[in-house]
Structure formats: structure tokens, C-alpha cells
Fold this sequence. Notes:
Helix content is about 55%, strand content about 0%. It is mainly alpha-helical.
Amino acid sequence: MTYTPPGQEPQQPQYSAPQQSGYATPQYSVGQQSYSGYAAPAPKSDRKTFGLWALILGLSGFLLPFFLNSIAAIVLGIVGLMKENSKGMSITGIVTGAINLLIWGPIVWFVIVPGLFLLFALGAAGASTY
């Protein structure tokens, strides 16, 4: 900025037209995307099917000493976390499935399996004495 004496109008700076660069500006047509890269992730479903089944199987595992209920509850809970918006039910299914495995695992493998083994061993021994 320069000093302008009173009574004189300040001069406007002179601007020249911008110089053309060696690069062409991209021309886009209507409907053409102007970006590239990764696609947006698919939105999570509002259904709560996997989370609900994880919760049901996890709670039923407390009553039935089957590992399939607990394992299915854990698997469906993980799938529900990844694909659905049912975090509460999915996490509850995972937790109850894991607790069931911790409770019923030792009982089944250290009490029921040896009991069945002894039952079949004694039954086979008793059948051979005839």
C-alpha cells in the first residue's frame, strides 16, 4: 500500500490475465464421478436376527450342556457385530456363550465323558461273562 495525498484518488493496481499452464484442466461430464478410490463400506443392516439368535442360544446353553449352543452363540454374536446394528444382543450372546463353555466344559469332559466311558466299559465286560 502506498501513501495517497489528500484530494487524489488512489490508483487501482493493474492485474493481468492469468498465464496458461502446461496442464489441462479436467473436464467432467454430468454423471461422471470426479474422484477415485475405495468404495464406501456397505451400511449395517437394521435387522437384529444374528444378535437375537446369539442371545437365545447363549441363554439356552445354561440349561442344556451342549457345546453347539455355546459355540453357535459365539459365532452368531460375532457375525451380528460385523453385519448388524445389534451390538447389545450380539455382545450378550458372545458373553453368555463363553460363560457356558467355561461352566459346562469341565463338567462334561471330567464328569460325563468318564462316566459314559465307565458305563460302556462295564457293560461290555458284563456282556462277555455269559
